[in-house]
Design goal:
18 helices, about 375 residues, two-stranded antiparallel ribbon, binds zinc ion
């Protein structure tokens, strides 16, 4: 006799999300009063005029250290709701205050850099490590097309990094499974892999629209970020189908250079490196990044090839030092030849960098 167990997992597409125009202007009409706005110093002067006398206060994010945020949280004025307005850091700090004060949260991403708006937990720093702390489900996430388009195009386009990396992550998960090195909490699950690939395909379909930052492109990228936030939670805080060697490379490069990078840009480089090591259609990955307009030359991130190549070659050491999940970085060393080949292909795709040296570091955008 065969017993068939019906699948019980329902696919939730994530937090309530509203697309539209002039959405910030409406917030004071329905958000619980008085409200706290959590945003960035460079954004506030442009958006301040939308808020009224029910503003309890504005918090300009200057730290994502847990100890510091706890201190700042205790000093906040009384408030009945939190509005997060900005990129990843502002949305994460808003989430943190909503959690600590148990208040309703309304999130307004001003760029599509990461999936921060769609995660239950915050990505903060504590004692030198990244921690996924807290819990907040926003009443809604408001995605204002015109507001998003005021961000520099690269910020929005780079949001594809967190979706394209499913390409390498899903292969890493299978490698870990085959090598007997998968985490016992998250055994390889083909259904999750298929879902991640479906999200990846949907975004690849829209790469030209994402490059244009059109309404269609904004909707497509947001949908994939929203799915990832929900899937991470539903799969038991499992990111094996979402990110792998691509994100490990980011950590390794940040560790080595002491610099923060625009997330999707460095993830793009990590995904290409991972695809090369996995023999997993690296030329296709490079073409996706080119079409989306995400320049992954090290100089475009404010570093040089020396730094990028060194981080690649130290990746195998770093992933064990940081005790990261098993990926291709554990099974295939990055040789001089591999770095040389990567440099040649990236240069052939994006051109040689002009002689005046790397661009200014891109710290601050998360
Ligand atoms: Zn990411």
């Amino acid at each position: 006799m065969t017993v068939t167990v019906a699948p019980t997992r329902t696919v939730d597409r994530g937090f309530p999300t509203v697309f539209g125009r002039d959405l910030v202007r409406e917030l004071p009409n329905f958000v619980h009063r008085p409200y706290l706005v959590v945003t960035m110093a460079d954004l506030w002067p442009r958006l301040e005029h939308h808020f009224d006398g029910n503003l309890a206060g504005v918090h300009l994010v200057d730290s994502i250290e847990v100890t510091e945020l706890d201190r700042q949280s205790a000093a906040l004025p009384a408030f009945s709701a939190v509005i997060g307005l900005g990129g990843g850091r502002a949305l994460d700090a808003a989430k943190f205050f909503a959690w600590r004060h148990d208040r309703p949260l309304f999130q307004v991403p001003t760029a599509l850099t990461t999936n921060a708006a769609f995660g239950h937990r915050t990505a903060l720093r504590h004692e030198g490590r990244e921690v996924g702390l807290g819990w907040a489900i926003p009443e809604a996430v408001y995605v204002d097309f015109d507001l998003v388009r005021t961000a520099p195009p690269l910020l929005n386009r780079s949001g594809v990094g967190d979706v394209l990396c499913h390409h390498t992550a899903t292969v890493d998960w299978k490698l870990a499974h085959d090598a007997g090195r998968e985490d016992r909490r998250w055994p390889y699950d083909e259904r999750l892999v298929a879902e991640a690939r479906e999200q990846l395909d949907a975004v690849v379909e829209c790469l030209d629209e994402i490059h244009e930052v059109s309404d269609t492109g904004i909707r497509a990228l947001t949908a994939a970020h929203r799915w990832a936030g929900a899937s991470f939670h539903e799969a038991g805080w499992n990111a094996c189908h979402l990110d792998g060697v691509d994100h490990a490379f980011q950590d390794a490069l940040e560790y080595q250079t002491g610099t923060h990078f625009l997330h999707g840009q460095v993830i793009g480089l990590g995904t290409y490196l991972g695809a090369v090591l996995q023999d997993n259609q690296p030329e296709l990955v490079l073409d996706w990044l080119r079409r989306a307009g995400v320049d992954i030359r090290p100089e475009a991130m404010g570093i040089d090839w020396e730094a990028a190549g060194t981080a690649m070659q130290r990746l195998a050491w770093y992933v064990r030092h940081a005790d990261l999940p098993y990926t291709i970085a554990d099974s295939r060393p990055v040789t001089d030849d591999i770095v040389g080949g990567i440099r040649d292909r990236i240069t052939a795709t994006f051109g040689a960098w002009p002689d005046e040296g790397p661009a200014a570091p891109r710290g601050g955008f998360v």
